[in-house]
Amino acid sequence: MLLLYVLCGLALAGGLVALAAGLRGRPVDEEERHNPLEGRLHTLWYGAPGTASPGMARLRRTQLVLALLGAPGGWLFTGIPLVGLLVPAAVFGLPWLFDATRSDTRRIERLEALAEWTQRLADVLLLGVGLNQAIMTSRRTAPTALETEISDLAARLQSRWRPEDALRAFGDQLADSTADKVLAALVLRAGDSGPGLARALADMAESVREEVRQRRAIEADRSKHRTTIRWMVGIILLVIVIGAFNSHYTAPYSTVLGQLVLGVVAVAFVAVIAWMRSLARHTPLPRVLEPDRRSKTGRLPGRSAAGDNPRTEDEPLVKEAG
Length: 322
Fold this sequence. Notes:
Shape: elongated
Oligomer: single chain
Distance between the termini: 59 Å
Helix content: 55-70%
């Protein structure tokens, strides 16, 4: 029992430290942003590549604190050591599950905003305005869903970033294959923003709008199955929580054999839920624009203190097919 109290104290101290660190935050430099390992860890922690929304960052900080405090609390309340592992799994696993069973509204809204922004760029380019000026002007009327990313893009161009590098950084923030198709056209025509580019952008805007319409139809069809998953998981968890207040119900799980059975049941439940989640979630298509990992010399602005050339000329702008 003394060991349990020691572990509870350590978990409480760790939770307070994690809360303070999360509220303080830490700036991420460009070297970390473009590191493959950092990118995979970022995707694993936030659930998606690209810039994490403030809501997701707050959710992760809250989950970390709840897991550190709930694990020893659940152990103390039930007297079952395995609960110390199951509580953090539930804290992180339930949002992970329900995120996949929610309608993918954020991506649809961002695609809608991308189509609107692309159409505005096409209209401005038809007036004879240069591409850089058109992008900086679009910041004032940027759609809400992409307001931050478009403002960052305009700020990079004002800081005299090369247009290709600024657009690539914009693509990394969006981390979407559909957005890459629009940005690839802008990258390839960065030095020539004539009427041909305006027409191409107008066509792409219509293509993105058509994708939005298709996505909305798909999401409406999937909503029935996602609702079934949410109700099923909710009922099972409600039974477990109510049963935890009954000492006669939880007594068999206090033994070694009972904890082994509980562990097997928990793993089987997670496996089934993970399988159902994989059927409900949207799998993003591979991106078209991505950094060339083979290059050892190409660096985006801000990644070199000496202010060297942002990217080597021989680095491909667009990911080669295949």
